[in-house]
Amino acid sequence: LVQLLESGGGSVQAGGSLTLSCVASGYTDIANCMGWFRQAPGKEREGVAHIFADGGSTFIADSVKGRFTISQDNARDAVYLQMNSLKPEDTAMYYCAATYVDPRKSIPTRDDEYDYWGQGTQVTVSS
């Protein structure tokens, strides 16, 4: 099974930056796509950024495009979310997720398309 361990959350002021990390362990070869989701109190869980290992294709949600970037390390067992120009609206629990997808298909962006999940890391942005 794939295990995901998230870190890097915290409290920052608006305009600040944070980098979230997600380290994958276990039988990681069964997953070839990783992504970040977030959920704020009273709101639906939404996809933030996703990356496909074979080829490095990425998808960034419109709500964070231009401010957030997703990347993987050289071993392809960790994924990072660089968050810049943070806004109070970015306050949420951020989750790392992984799944296997047919390489011929588009990168998945919905939470029901992912099979493995971390525990989440809280990001709080104050004004």
Structure explained in plain terms:
The protein contains no helices and eleven strands. By secondary structure, the chain is mainly beta. The strands form two sheets. Strands 2, 4, 5, 6, 9, 10 and 11 form a seven-stranded mixed beta sheet that branches. The protein has a four-stranded antiparallel beta sheet with strand order 1-3-8-7, with no helix packed on it. A hairpin with a 5-residue loop joins β5 (46-52) and β6 (58-60). The relative contact order is 0.31. The mean pLDDT is 94.
Short structural summary:
With 127 residues, the protein is mainly beta. The chain has no helices and 11 strands.
Helix fraction, binned, reads: under 10%
Strand tally is 11
Q: Report the mean per-residue pLDDT as an integer.
A: 94
Structural class: mainly beta
Structural shape: globular
- Counted by DSSP, the helix tally is 0
Low-confidence stretches: none
- Written as H for each helix and E for each strand, in order along the chain, the element string is EEEEEEEEEEE
Cα-based radius of gyration, to the nearest Å: 14 Å
Main β sheet profile: 7 strands, mixed
Distance between the termini: 40 Å
Beta content? over 45%
